[in-house]
Amino acid sequence: MRGRDRSEEHRAVLTELTEIAADRKVDLTLVAGDLFDTGSPTPVAEEIVWDTLLRLAEVAPVVIVAGNHDNPTRIDAVAPLLGRAGIIAIGAPRSPDSGGLVEVAGARIGLLPFVSQKGIVRAAEIMASDPDQNAGLYQERVQRVVERLTEGMGTDTVNLLVTHLTVFGAVTGGGERVAHVFGYAVPPTVFPGHLSYVALGHLHRQQKIPHPGAVWYSGSPMQLDFGEVDDTKGVLVVEAGPGKPATVTTVPIASGRRLVTVKGRLEEVLAKTDDLGEAYVKVVLTEKGRVGLADEVRAVIPDAVEVILESPQERLSDPEPRTRLDPRDAFSRYLGERGAVDTRVESLFAELLDEVGT
Ligand SMILES: [Mn+2]
Questions:
Q1: 193 CA from centroid of ligand 1 (Å)
Q2: What are the boundaries of each domain within the chain?
Q3: E strand residue ranges, 265-348
Q4: Which of 107, 181, 276, 310 could connect to 158 by a Cys-Cys bridge, CB 3.0–4.6 Å?
Q5: CA distance 147 to 193
Q6: What is the Cα–Cα distance from 343 to 154, expressed in whole angstroms?
Q7: Beta bridge pairs of residue 252
Q8: Lowest model confidence (mean pLDDT) among 3-12, 153-162, 225-234, 320-329
């Protein structure tokens, strides 16, 4: 959330998650990637994540694969330390006999961290063929890796796969950048039928994948952007036995502030503030932009983290050529014309301008 520190929310959400694991007396916790939202997380983010994992490990073993936002080398670097606490973590993909297949709490678990298209399709092949073929190669290779990881699993064991990728047919929600989501994905058929449960990470919306087995995205445990305002967040509690798909129960997580979108003319929006509570708000104003409008909204709704205009674009009748204007005025006018008046953007622009010495 731009400009907002959500670390206290993260703490509350992850505490609730840990309590669910303890209350349900789980035998195992699976984390399907994106522990962090960047490869170089802040110390506070690290503290929150490691503390949560250690508390989860007091309940039961924890198994983690890296997601696309995690730095795989970094995860592998701390894996030996985590291992001391009963946490199995892998950053980069491994063959079944060198850590890609583990046995924990009586279950066989295939581990496939996020693999980029580059990682799985050699660069030369990307150069040589068209995007469709690359996508085909990606699918084919993910399929082969999944086969390798799961081929040793019999029908008399609980077989799990933990991975971080996009599956065709899944609903993206708002959390992942579109190009990334649609660039490379795999069909649900890559997951073989003898898997009791497949734990998927990447998409922020909790959902079951169309598949005869139990293939699920747990989703993010809290709302992360305004594409997710309608999502119910929580964890999945999975009950698995050998030879049949697992039973999955969704358990909501109530901590974490809601994200709400409010739309209308300024006076309509300002009249709706009573229902907002603690929510972070995206305000969509259906009127013509003018300087200071965003500030007027924020004076009444301090938690308006986004204020945007949705107005028909009107051309100024006789615009003064921009070249004769001060760059700040020209930019401000441009924002006005685009219906995107935001004084913060304007002052950032002025700052940048000062930096380059104009
Ligand atoms: Mn991801």
A1: 25
A2: 7-252, 259-355
A3: 280-285, 304-309
A4: 107
A5: 11
A6: 62
A7: 234
A8: 320-329
Give the per-residue pLDDT at 325.
75
* Angle between helix 43-59 and helix 7-23 axes, rounded to 10 deg: 10
Tell me the two tokens of residue 262. Answer: 């409010």
Amino acid letter, 176: E
pLDDT digits (tens, 9 = 90+) for 303-316: 999 898 886 554 44
Element (H, E) at 178: helix 178-183
CA of 219 to the centre of ligand 1 (A): 10
Ligand 1 centre distance from Cα of residue 273 (Å): 34
SS3 237: strand
CATH class of the region 7-252: alpha beta
pLDDT at 272 over 90: no
Mean pLDDT of the chain: 88
Q: Is the pLDDT of residue 297 over 80?
A: yes
Choose between 316 and 275: higher pLDDT.
Answer: 275
For the stretch 54-80, pLDDT in tens is 999 999 999 999 999 999 999 999 999
Centre of ligand 1 from the C-alpha of residue 358, in Å: 40
Alpha-carbon gap, residue 62 to 86, rounded angstroms = 7
Tokens of 89: 């973590």
Question: CA–CA separation, 72 vs 115, rounded Å?
Answer: 10
Task: List the 259-264 sheet strands across, edge first.
Answer: 259-264, 280-285, 304-309
With 50 as the cut, is the pLDDT of residue 331 above it?
Answer: yes
Closest by alpha carbon to 218, among 238, 247, 240?
Answer: 238
Residue 156: phi, psi to the nearest 5?
Answer: -100, 10
Query: What's the CA gap between 14 and 9, in Å, rounded?
Result: 8
Assess contact for 337 and 316: CB atoms under 8 A: yes
